[in-house]
Amino acid sequence: MSKSYVALIADAIASRELAPATRARLQTDLRAALPELNRRYAKSLAARFAVTLGDELQCLLATSQPLWDVAHTVRARLPAVDWVVACGRGPITTPLAPTAPEVDGPCFHEARAAMDRAKRHRQVLAFGGFAAALDPLASYYSALYWSWTPRQRRAAALLRLGDAAAAAARLDIDRSAVSHLARRMAWPLVAAGDKMFRSLLETDAA
Length: 206
Known about the structure:
CATH class: Alpha Beta
Radius of gyration: 17 Å
CATH superfamily: Reverse transcriptase/Diguanylate cyclase domain
Number of domains: 1
Number of helices: 8
Order of helices and strands: EHEEHEHEHHHHH
Shape: globular
CATH topology: Alpha-Beta Plaits
CATH architecture: 2-Layer Sandwich
Number of strands: 5
Helix content: 40-55%
Structural class: alpha+beta
């Protein structure tokens, strides 16, 4: 049986509608983020992160275990735009290579199909080749995401990566302000839903 990998594609939403200077800054920030992302997830990567199509990131992971953290690291590290993160699981049909765009196979086709579905349904997280039980959780996640303000979305990404103190430091606000944001977002309920989502995602790891 062919080994399965997980392809991840992160695409900046409506990036072509940005002013030229803003889009250029986004592309500069994307390239600047690559060394950090590749260093942080070095042990999990089968092929490193690279920028494709100007405003898109791709990587190839050995398993789905780090997907949750990767998705939220992208959101937290590049908060100037909203991101669709699509994940596809399956084999590859080319040899492994240093970066993800140099590799091809069903996992990338699943990720691209999931990206297309996500864009049609205004979702910000989508899966292809995974357990069907993840789909309603991805819908819940996306509906919750769009119900928040941009500031709340950034706080959510940071809280999903760490604690409130770390989020306060990154947002440059007091810890009490983060607590107030979290209360308005009903964070204990969000965290409970996230725990189920993440558990299912990691149980479904290849």
